């Protein structure tokens, strides 16, 4: 072969190694609204600046919550399991990327063999026993003519990046669940305190009614009504205390501690509900880790199409095997060397439709990944709209209910005064007490729900996460876990 023909052949091989049979990748199209319908007129110009990255729970200004949240990273077993899955994805990505490089192996064997006396074509009839000893190095390198190996590596990297986004999603979910349980617990603390005060007030009212009954001022009907109110409040107090205990147990599990060894001292605190405006809808595509995971999965599926299409074409590899071989233990003599060198070519001729089926499956996975991405995007916009509507409506409802509490308190004071003067029956007092307690409980419930809606909004917006937090291609294939 002349030098010109050799150079032409080499150039042709190099040109083929630049081929890529995967379709050009484009992020799946998803409908993105211009603005949020439920955002309300209170949205500032640059709302994204209001949601801090990282420790978003500090917006609530609660030191106990600030101390609990970091414990999720340190001790939550569900998060640790997700980290392990991410480590596996990175290892698989590194394994896929390794196929782009030559594979080199060394081996050897020292054996003693006995050949049959009647063996056909017996080797050296005078030697029944003989040694077969060798030391060899083999090397092989597959030329990536159609982009199969590059697409396998790209799919591995994209899958690892999707796993990193899944890790962020799980972390955010656990953080939001902890914040939700914590504010529900503080809401239960307020309910317990309210019911404790209510029981004390009802006890005084019951004692007053009994004295009036003993003085033959009122009938036993008033006493039974007062007792009914007292017992109902005591039952509600027990129920609220049980709910608080369950929330405390849930928090213990989230921070990786046995419920038996964990406690949060009861405390009634003033709720500070931060306004978390949603920002521009287009920003959400970069701020939700579940959206990023779905997009990376679509990219991996796109590369998978390239792998499936490349299977129809020839596979060319360069192979080298060399070493020393002898029947004695004295190896490494030049006369005992052996080697083989040459290319290997494989071309599928008949697969019974297997390759075509694999290609169809790859295209189906690509369509599925695109539709999944669009579904997650739509759900993300729904989450933001839901939380924005809740935040806005609950704020108005809370303000209205606070006025209702004041009115109910005044009604009870008047009813008690009239009852002491004998100008009203105890039924009026019972009705006023019931209305006040219900109004107070509703007001506390609305305050708690506003806190939970704020947590829900932060979760819907990705908790300050950004697509820039995804690991680079190199980071995605690094095997060491940064725990």
Give an account of the 3D structure.
- By secondary structure, the protein is an alpha+beta fold.
- It has two domains: 19-100 and 144-312 and 352-476, Outer membrane efflux proteins (OEP); 110-143 and 314-347, Outer membrane efflux proteins (OEP), CATH 2.20.200.
- It has helices spanning 3-16, 63-68, 70-75, 77-98, 148-214, 220-254, 281-287, 289-310, 354-420, 426-460, 473-476, and strands spanning 103-114, 129-143, 315-326, 337-346.
- The chain is elongated.
- The two termini are 57 Å apart.
Adjacency order of strands in the biggest sheet: 1-2-3-4
The biggest beta sheet reads: 4 strands, antiparallel
Helix content: 55-70%
Number of strands: 4
Task: Count up the domains.
Answer: 2
Secondary-structure element order, N to C: HHHHEEHHHHEEHHH
- The end-to-end distance, rounded to whole angstroms, is 57 Å
Rg from alpha-carbon coordinates: 37 Å
- Could you say which overall geometry the principal axes of the C-alpha atoms support? elongated
From the 3D structure, determine the CATH topology of the largest domain.
Answer: Outer membrane efflux proteins (OEP)
User: What is the beta-strand fraction?
Assistant: 5-15%
Q: Tell me the CATH superfamily of the largest domain.
A: Outer membrane efflux proteins (OEP)
Overall pLDDT, averaged?
87
Task: Just give the CATH class of the largest domain.
Answer: Mainly Alpha
CATH-scheme architecture of the largest domain: Up-down Bundle
Based on helices, strands and strand pairing, what is the structural class?
A: alpha+beta
